[in-house]
């Protein structure tokens, strides 16, 4: 019974990081995850910080977010990044992250023909 309660708690916490998970999954599919970086800072008193998160892809800012928790600020930045990358965000689409695909249709083969 305890294990079941733990799983429910973990699932509830994951709902606050859906944008971060979707962004990581997308970039992993595109083999670009190594280009992702984060800058997290906090301001205000220790008992009530305001977290600010900046999401960067290859050094370029693609999303920013602020919240009272670090995870929520990071998630907000990830959702902004997903919008900038023309991907659905958890608030736009509640389906699973398995539905994320590159914005290009690759069903007919690579769209970028590179000739020697």
Automatic annotation (TrEMBL):
GO terms for molecular function: RNA binding. Gene3D superfamilies: 3.30.160.20. The keyword Phosphoprotein does not apply. Residues 72-83 have a biased composition (Basic and acidic residues). Signal peptide: none annotated. Keywords: RNA-binding. Residues 18-87 form the DRBM domain. InterPro entries: dsRBD_dom. It holds the Pfam family dsrm. PROSITE patterns: DS_RBD. Residues 72-116 are annotated as: Disordered. This is DRBM domain-containing protein.
